[in-house]
Amino acid sequence: MRSLLRGEPAVWAVLVCLSTGMAAASFGYGVTKEGGQVGPGFLPLVSGVALAVLSAACLVRSVRGGAPPSGEDVDPRRIRTLWTVFGLLLAALLLVPVTGFLVAFGLLVFTVSAFVERQRVVSAAGVAVVATSVLYAVFVLFLGVPLPGGLLGVGGDG
């Protein structure tokens, strides 16, 4: 079983680094506003710290050789799927300067839904549109955080 989990510590380490970076970047948006109100950087800070702590715990468990959840062997397809999603996330991040954050995020959600989760194309498109719309509403409209618009300029101002 240990041979199946060889890449697991690396996945958790990458997730710790990404989430720590997200938490650190949140200070650039302002964690609080004047008067002590929650600022646009509050959600990325809390999410980043929580994800970093949970990922670090999973990393420690993985390195110590703890049993997989519920005592079952880990399916190598699940690890391959996890690496596929990380690869798609990297591709989406590389697309942001060209397409803008909203388009890259929508394409990421669609691709994961349609090709990784094997949902029907119409369902995957619906999930992508709803997720992107919610992201836009929360960050641009509610929090007033301008998202990177890329060369297309989509979603760049709130």
From TrEMBL:
It comes from the Bacteria. Residues 14-148 form the DUF1468 domain. InterPro entries: DUF1468. The chain crosses the membrane at residues 12-30, 42-63, 83-110, 122-145. Signal peptide: none annotated. This is Tripartite tricarboxylate transporter TctB family protein. Pfam families: TctB. Keywords: Membrane, Transmembrane, Transmembrane helix.
